[in-house]
Amino acid sequence: MMAVTPPVRVGIASLAMYHGNFWAQALAVSDQAELVGIWDDDVARGREGARAAGTRYVPDLERLLDACDAICITSETARHADLVERAAAAGCHVLCEKPLATTMADCDRIRRAVDAAGIIFMQGYPKRFDPASHELKRLVDGGELGTVTLVRVRHGHLYGLRRPDVLPGWMHDPGQAGGGALLDEGCHGADLIRWLFGEPDAVMATVSHRALGRAVEDLGLAVFLYDDGPACELCSSVTFAAGDASVEIFGTRGTAILSGVDLASRDVTNGGFLRLCLLDSGALEDPATRSWQVVPVTPGFQDTPAFHQQNPLRFIDTLVRGTPPPVTIEDGRRSLQMILSAYEAARTGTTVRIPGPDRAAHAPQAVHV
């Protein structure tokens, strides 16, 4: 891959997803990037975001693309494919907010546009850069927990319980968002599960609209199954008043519990974020001797803006170094496939086999339940 000479000229396409404001802040102070402008079809939102980031509002997207080496897309999810196609046609490298799209067909559009233009594309999944996530991966890959049998990932927040305007209105619209809590929050957990354990084979799931009564679910629960691996429970909601254990990994030699890595737990968990209990021969003989050990790691999510800023900073570093992106289109495709398969499982009340990477053409499309 050919490197881009810094400073990389970068623009923001839409601030519909509020993470774009964090990305703009990071780009505005990066010594390897120049934030050349922000486009948004909501003029007031775009002007305010540009003012806050110390850059200009550009009312014409094509003019912004012409001035950029790269573009960061934080629009409504259903618009990702259109904006990626326009960016690719202009020869701009792309960082795209999660989830990649609302349908597998749009994922295919994105991949075709990126391949045809030969641009670099990175999917935004900041958990990949959190030191706490890397410590979990070290424990799993190194076999310290033994054979992993059960994983529980709880990821969500309480914004659905606060005033209605905390979450943008488009996130309540299945047509624009593609789904509710299971997609918007759960895609983080789905990507983490894949990253730690590989591709799951099947899923069973349920969703609920009971708390808020909106068109998209406020709670989703999915259990991802491996033919030869752990059962991985994923629970996502926008109505968690508080939380503690965000990730639990149970193995035959020990258990790891990680807290403070979602908004429900971040502000109410103040230390001892990663706890580990390992079984030695003595503990097997006398279970009363078991004890928790605190692993000295602080999740990056304890600083929310800095956590989300890792996406654009790693993107710029990828462009400058000319290295492959740390999170790819395929990562975005596969995590979306997991969630869409979970929606199908919830709709049908059955266990659904998840199409593998080579069976994407037969993948389920968006299912609103």
Give an account of the 3D structure:
By secondary structure, this protein is of the alpha/beta class. It has 2 domains: about 10-125 and about 305-330, NAD(P)-binding Rossmann-like Domain (Rossmann fold, 3-Layer(aba) Sandwich); about 125-300, Dihydrodipicolinate Reductase, domain 2, CATH 3.30.360. It is about 35% helix and about 20% strand. The protein has 13 helices and 14 strands. The chain has helices at about 20-30, 45-55, 60-65, 80-90, 105-115, 130-140, 175, 180-185, 185-195, 265, 280-285, 305-320, 330-350; strands at about 10-15, 35-40, 70-75, 95, 120-125, 150-155, 200-210, 220-225, 230-235, 245-250, 255-260, 275-280, 295, 350-355. The strands form 2 sheets. The protein has a 9-stranded mixed sheet with strand order 13-12-11-10-6-9-8-7-14. Strands 2-1-3-4-5 form a 5-stranded parallel sheet, with helices on both faces. α1 (about 20-30) runs parallel beside α2, α1 (about 20-30) packs across α12 (about 305-320) and α5 (about 105-115) runs antiparallel to α13. The longest helix is centred in the C-terminal third of the chain and has 20 residues, at about 330-350. The radius of gyration is 21 Å and the shape is globular. Mean pLDDT is about 95; it is low at about 360-369.
